[in-house]
């Protein structure tokens, strides 16, 4: 526009100064257009993005700006799309001149503010201006990556992992049994097939018969986490819901178990069967978190039936963690089932959600059947030897996972009456 005005003035006045300035400006404009179009065709970008991150964690994203042209460049800007952020667009300005045929490295911190899920990163938009900022060109590069945002573990009291010691309380067998650990157990009579190297010769000579040394078995601890994914128990909204609290607790327990080298497995029934076999490595923890990223509360199988069906697969003496999104309708049967698990040598830990503290968002949630009070059901489980924690939707989750629930003390008059009866 300015070039046309100056050219017009140069012709009308006529003035060689106006005409020369207009012609120069017009020539600069056409040269700038050719410059930015040439530059934008010779710019490429690659990205290195971490494949996964935890909620509310920063992730370093590295970009490489590749300039294959023969002219130096100024005013290059990149716009990347990091969707886990609340504001997904990230703007990066190259602060210096790009030399011909060079590579320039940039990086930024992406903040995973959004909740668990799988997110796309990209595309990348490249913008370039001429040196005076009059002409701009842009190009969108289809550079895509994917990042999985895991649920962030919170501090949790470690469940008493059955089997954390050799032999006694192991994840496979509750009682001490024979094996080849360094712990000496005793001696027994020689049986055909025993290793001759285990013969206890001094003791055999003293008793006049062959005796062999016996050691405790070196077994591995195990924890099985049961998820309550019945749709009828879905309550709450956003991060304060029975589903998200279950996901947080399961992720925290799995991370704690792997840290202590305890085998952890997970079972649930939603719109699909969720089954993670036992394992204790960091790769196995990633498998658990991958399942939790995609889990939904869309199941039709009641939690009581799920646990009862899977009981036969539990190794004797292992730890069982029950995440109950609500006290079950089959409360007496469930308490009896938990008592049988304890009697079989399992250590049972229950995280019982007080459904009344989670808001009912939809009308269908308000009309769902009644459940027994959480405190009454927790007391019944506690009386069976179950380690109980009651989870409320009105208190931040990390504050509830370190202390176990205990029944409230009876009033003074009731305690006095019980004491008097005990004396009699």
| Percentage beta strand | 25-35%
The computed structural class is alpha/beta
Mean pLDDT: 82
Count of alpha/pi helices: 10
Helix and strand sequence: HHEEEEEEEEEEHEEEEHEEHHEHEHHEH
According to DSSP, the number of beta strands is: 19
Computed over alpha carbons, the radius of gyration is 34 Å
Helical residue percent band: 25-40%
Sheet with most strands: 6 strands, mixed
Low-confidence stretches: 162-181
Measured between the Cα atoms of the first and last residue, the distance is 108 Å
Structural shape: elongated
Brief summary of the model shown:
The protein has ten helices and 19 strands. It has helices at residues 2-12, 16-41, 201-207, 242-259, 282-294, 303-310, 331-343, 363-367, 374-383, 412-423; strands at residues 43-48, 52-54, 58-67, 76-82, 89-93, 102-111, 117-129, 136-141, 145-150, 178-189, 211-216, 222-227, 236-237, 240-241, 263-269, 273-279, 319-324, 347-353, 387-391. Helix 1 packs antiparallel against helix 2 and helix 4 (242-259) packs antiparallel against helix 5 (282-294).
Which helices and strands appear, and what pairs or packs with what?
Layout: H1 2-12, H2 16-41, E1 43-48, E2 52-54, E3 58-67, E4 76-82, E5 89-93, E6 102-111, E7 117-129, E8 136-141, E9 145-150, E10 178-189, H3 201-207, E11 211-216, E12 222-227, E13 236-237, E14 240-241, H4 242-259, E15 263-269, E16 273-279, H5 282-294, H6 303-310, E17 319-324, H7 331-343, E18 347-353, H8 363-367, H9 374-383, E19 387-391, H10 412-423
Parallel strand pairs: 2-9, 12-15, 12-17, 17-18, 18-19
Antiparallel strand pairs: 1-3, 3-6, 4-5, 4-7, 7-8, 7-9, 10-11, 13-14, 15-16
Helix pairs in contact: 1-2, 4-5
């Amino acid at each position: 526009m300015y070039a046309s005005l100056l050219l017009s003035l140069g012709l009308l006045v006529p003035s060689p100064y106006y005409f020369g300035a207009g012609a120069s400006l017009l020539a600069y404009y056409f040269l700038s257009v050719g410059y930015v179009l040439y530059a934008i065709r010779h710019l490429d970008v690659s990205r290195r993005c971490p494949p996964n991150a935890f909620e509310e964690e920063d992730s370093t994203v590295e970009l490489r700006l590749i300039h294959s042209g023969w002219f130096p460049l100024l005013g290059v800007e990149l716009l990347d799309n990091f969707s886990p952020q609340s504001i997904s667009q990230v703007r990066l300005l190259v602060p210096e001149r790009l030399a011909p045929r060079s590579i320039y490295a940039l990086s930024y911190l992406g903040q995973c503010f959004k909740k668990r899920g799988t997110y796309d990163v990209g595309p990348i938009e490249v913008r370039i201006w001429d040196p005076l900022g009059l002409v701009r060109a842009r190009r969108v590069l289809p550079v895509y990556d994917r990042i999985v945002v895991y649920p962030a573990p919170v501090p949790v009291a470690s469940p008493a992992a059955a089997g954390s010691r050799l032999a006694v309380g192991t994840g496979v067998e509750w009682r001490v049994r024979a094996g080849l650990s360094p712990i000496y157990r005793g001696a027994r009579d020689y049986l055909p097939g025993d290793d001759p190297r285990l013969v206890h010769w001094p003791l055999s000579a003293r008793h006049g018969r062959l005796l062999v040394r016996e050691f405790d078995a070196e077994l591995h601890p195990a924890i099985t986490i049961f998820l309550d994914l019945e749709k009828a128990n879905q309550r709450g909204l956003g991060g304060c819901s029975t589903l998200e609290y279950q996901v947080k607790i399961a992720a925290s327990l799995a991370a704690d178990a792997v840290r202590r080298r305890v085998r952890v497995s997970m079972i649930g029934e939603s719109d699909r069967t969720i089954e993670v076999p036992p394992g204790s490595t960091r790769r196995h923890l990633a498998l658990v978190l991958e399942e939790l990223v995609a889990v939904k509360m869309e199941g039709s199988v009641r939690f009581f039936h799920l646990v009862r069906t899977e009981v036969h697969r539990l190794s004797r003496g292992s730890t069982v963690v029950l995440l109950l999104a609500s006290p079950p309708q089959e409360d007496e049967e469930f308490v009896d089932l938990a008592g049988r698990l304890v009697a079989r040598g399992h250590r049972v830990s229950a995280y019982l959600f007080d459904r009344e503290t989670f808001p009912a968002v939809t009308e269908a949630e308000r009309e769902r059947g009644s459940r027994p009070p959480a405190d009454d059901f927790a007391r019944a489980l506690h009386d069976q030897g179950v380690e109980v924690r009651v989870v409320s939707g009105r208190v931040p989750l990390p504050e509830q996972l370190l202390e176990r629930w205990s029944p409230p003390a009876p009033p003074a008059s009731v305690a006095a009456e019980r004491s008097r009866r005990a004396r009699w």
